[in-house]
Amino acid sequence: MAGQLIRRIAVSLAALALSSVLALAQSKVTIAIGGASCLCYLPTVLAKHLGEYEKAGVNVEMVDFKGGSQSLTAVLGGSADVVSGYFDHCVNLAAKGQSLQAFVVYDRYPGFALVVSPKQGDAIKSIKDLGGKRIGVSAPGSSTDYFLKFILKKNGVDPASVGIIGIGLGATAVAAMEQGSVDAAIMLDPAVTLLQGKNKGLKILSDTRTQKDTLDVFGGEYPGGALYTKADWIASHPKETQALTNAIVNTLKWIHSHTPEEIMAKMPDELVGADKALYLAALKNTLPMYSTTGRMDPKGAQAVLAVFSQSSPDVAKANVDLSKTYTNKFVDQANQKTGMK
Fold this sequence. Notes:
It is a single chain. About 50% of the residues lie in helices and about 15% in strands. The protein is an alpha/beta fold. Helix 6 links the parallel strand 6 and strand 7 (about 165). Helix 6 crosses helix 15, helix 7 (about 170-180) runs parallel beside helix 8 and helix 8 crosses helix 14 (about 275-285).
């Protein structure tokens, strides 16, 4: 009798566990991504194609936007749940009284490059020559826009003196640069490498695709891409937040244990594009950028605040509490499961 009771309890517990997993698997989360073709966002896209979201027990739908500001707008407006974008938006909006929180960071560096249009290579020799020029960013108000203003101001150029034009991050950015519709642009890989492949001697005025370049520009590491959302969404969706974090942490582990060729093979053909050799070259350039743990480095968050305090008076006087703009709680729990440190 006791044995039958124990078996019934065991069966009931197993059924309850299975129903919990299925319930979570049926939870749909919409991720707004600020330009899926950009290698800066590769971990978010790759997680989908590795099946990591499903393994973690969450059904993810991705909606692709031209830039990070548009994906942020989607979350603030309620048409998406989570942003795959740059952490600096969390800091900027904290200064405006809005509580957004990053819960897993996948880029150790921002990966921005300030590139001169091939048609302007002779006229533009340095950042100081950009005054009065037309400069492309992914979208006005995006992280590329903020970086542009920071780097201009740092080099003595008034950001108000330049014309800022949204050109996207992928093929549209390459086309705008080749056609000369902008004189320079903030670009990311694979677009930078693709443009270099077509235009030998392409001039790059500032580059944050490596640790050395990032330290030269910012004086410290500067976190880029992350999953973030409203703090109250995280509080009301802890299981979904943990599932998304587990998926990204597992994907980062997969990235650092596989070759660039194996990674490229998992990416959709429409994102790789026709020139696989150049995409592969760009991916090899980008791999050091990806985090090995998913954790936010507090010093990196401080660097973001310092940059925005220089370029935005509102941020400088807002007394932002950085501890509220990110959490490592979910990443630490995920890393315990995977054995990552």
